[in-house]
Amino acid sequence: MMRSILLKLSNSPGMARWVTTHKTTRRMSERFVAGAHLDQAIAAARVCNQNGLKVSLDLLGESVSNAEEARRAREAYFIIFDRIAEEKLDANVSIKLTQLGLDIDTAKCHEYLDALVTHAAAYNNFVRVDMEASAYTQRTIDLVKQARAKTPAVGVVVQAYLRRTEKDVQELISAGCRMRLCKGAYKEPATVAFPDKSDVDANYVRLMQTMLPSGIYHGIATHDPNMIDATKRFAAAKGISKEAFEFQMLYGIRTDLQQQLVREGYNMRVYIPYGSDWFPYFMRRLAERPANLLFFAKNLFRG
Q1: Which residue blocks in the chain are alpha helix, DSSP H?
Q2: What does pTM read for this prediction?
Q3: pLDDT value of residue 293
């Protein structure tokens, strides 16, 4: 119930105004968000690289309301790729298609995605397209597959809580597409998503076991030690090398586990978000883990 409430509040303009103008909550967001500006994200990425961690940078913002906002997002991502190259960072980029105007003009969104993927490919880099709510799943997959047909410099996120994902994974493997497997963080009806955590976990393991033997370099995104252990055991049993895939985690969450995986010789990538439009992302992080909400509450009432 608490997760449902938090996810609903993530779409509340009034809640957003209160949280983003409250000094304590702005400070709290720094646990999960690198900062408001690209320079801060670059600095966080540099520290991660120094600690043996790969990075994916994400300019926060989704569901833009007009074409000019989408165009500005496109230009901002060009700059991010340029800075990654200039700074010689081990980093790629994550984007959301609604930030590129998917709700406004699908053709223009397609054009912007192709341009970004081409720009990434010129740097021998990579675009990861984040998955949003289920209303966007098919359109996201369609646009990624179209871009992937031109260059391998693009991949997509798949969500274990969606009932459809097993079929999507099979199709994306056939297309040679790199995937990031996560559990999913949006409020969805039971007809679309598994409502019980045990079912989501079981599907996560099934999907991981389908993805890893494909010969495609995938990301296994989880902070759940059970999912991590299941991945390690499966890879070892199947003779899949540690270099053939990577684990992924969010900035500010389970840094101890991130470093442990690096010490064990696994590839580990940290998803680093930045930007002023951090409220929806922040609320989804609170909804994901009770420990995050407790951390938030303790610090809020101290402030």
Answers
A1: 2-9, 13-21, 23-29, 38-50, 67-87, 106-122, 137-148, 165-174, 197-211, 225-237, 255-263, 279-288, 290-302
A2: 0.85
A3: 55
From CA 41, how far away is CA 84, in angstroms rounded? 11
d(CA 201, CA 227): 8
> At 40, is the secondary structure helix, strand, or coil?
helix
Give dist(CA 279, CA 281) in Å, integer.
Answer: 5
Identify the active-site residue in 74, 178, 180, 285.
Answer: 180
* pLDDT mean over 193-218: 97
In the chain, what's the furthest Cα-to-Cα distance? 53
14 contacts 279 by C-beta, under 8 angstroms: no
pLDDT higher than threshold 70 for residue 294: no
Is the per-residue pLDDT at 46 higher than 60?
yes
User: For 116-165, how does the pLDDT look when each residue is reduced to its tens digit (9 = 90+)?
Assistant: 999 999 999 999 999 999 999 999 999 999 999 999 999 999 999 999 99
7 is written with which tokens? 């996810």
**Dihedral, CA of residue 17, residue 135, residue 116 and residue 108, to nearest 10:** -100
Q: Can you list the domains of the chain with their CATH numbers?
A: 33-277 (3.20.20.220)
Taking all residues of the chain, what is their mean pLDDT, rounded to a whole number?
88
Q: Do residues 282 and 19 make contact, with C-beta atoms less than 8 angstroms apart?
A: yes
Mode of pairing for the β-strands spanning 91-95 and 154-159: unpaired
Which of 103, 130, 201, 277 does the annotation list as catalytic?
Answer: 130
Backbone angles phi, psi at 166, to 5 degrees: -60, -45
Catalytic (active site) residue 26: no
Residue 130 annotated in active site: yes
In the three-class reduction of DSSP (H, G, I as helix; E, B as strand; rest coil), residue 273 is classed as strand
